[in-house]
Specification:
CATH topology of the largest domain: Rossmann fold
Strand order of the largest sheet: 2-1-3-6-7
Distance between the termini: 50 Å
Strand content: 25-35%
Largest sheet: 5 strands, parallel
Length: about 250
């Protein structure tokens, strides 16, 4: 695996090189760069499999660098200091990122995930979704990348009617599209989607508040969605749900 490290701090670059030598013997760091200009040169010259990329650098950001190199012929793992705004966009776009200071086990896991990707097409899809999320974080236009067993799909939040837990998977019910079953617990998607108008009505159900048609009192509480599907309401969630509906 040919790797290029792009970070303006030499200390960080050296630390990553040492971690890779110890924990990833199949990783070959072919070049390093400290800014956008030098990064473009070494990426074009060395054609890496993976770029470990800092966000903030002299001469532009890591995002600026990728825009100049689109379509991408390599996979990307972002290296960043904590930034809640960017991290939220990373999660929605299913993009790998590592927080400084780097934990070796997390770097190894991220590299293993990149090896499992069959092509770089997914990287371009994810990055396009990411840039869309960075530019506009409204509920209607925000996009989430959903990985099913046979394809990767980009979905606007405004298309999601509800989500339903299926063991360690989550079923996304969409408007005028086939449902999508993706790996990941409902809790993970609850954490991502709740700030954007979604509500966990039941331990197995997460609903888009804008798609609620009515709340029926039968069986302790049942939500009927605009597509005529239904989601139960747990007793402890009932009053919070009524309050959320009143604030739509």
């Amino acid at each position: 695996m040919k790797i290029i490290i792009v970070d303006d701090e030499k200390r960080i670059r050296s630390s990553l090189v040492n971690v890779l030598k110890i924990h990833c013997p199949n990783a070959n760091v072919v070049a390093e760069a400290c800014d956008v200009e030098s990064a473009i040169e070494v990426i074009k010259a060395n054609k890496p499999d993976v770029v470990l990329l800092d966000i903030k650098m002299p001469g532009g950001t890591g995002f600026d660098l990728l825009k100049l190199l689109m379509p991408l012929s390599f996979k990307v793992i972002f290296i960043t200091a904590f930034d809640q705004f960017a991290i939220q966009a990373f999660k929605f776009s299913a993009i790998d990122y590592l927080l400084k200071p780097i934990i070796p086990e997390e770097l190894v896991s991220a590299l293993h995930r990149t090896e499992e990707q069959l092509s770089n097409e997914g990287t371009n899809i994810k990055f396009n979704a990411f840039m869309s999320n960075i530019d506009d974080l409204t509920r209607e236009t925000k996009r989430i990348v959903l990985n099913s067993h046979d394809k990767m799909q980009v979905v606007n939040l405004g298309e999601i009617v509800r989500c339903e837990a299926d063991r360690n998977y989550t079923l996304f019910i969409l408007v005028n599209k086939k449902p999508i079953l993706v790996s990941g617990s409902l809790k993970e998607y609850d954490d991502m989607l709740s700030p954007f108008g979604f509500f966990r009505s039941h331990h197995s159900h997460l609903v888009n508040l804008t798609f609620i048609d009515r709340l029926e009192k039968r069986d302790g509480g049942v939500l009927v969605m605009k597509d005529n599907s239904e989601a139960p309401v747990s007793a402890r969630k009932y009053s919070d749900l009524v309050a959320a509906i009143n604030h739509i």
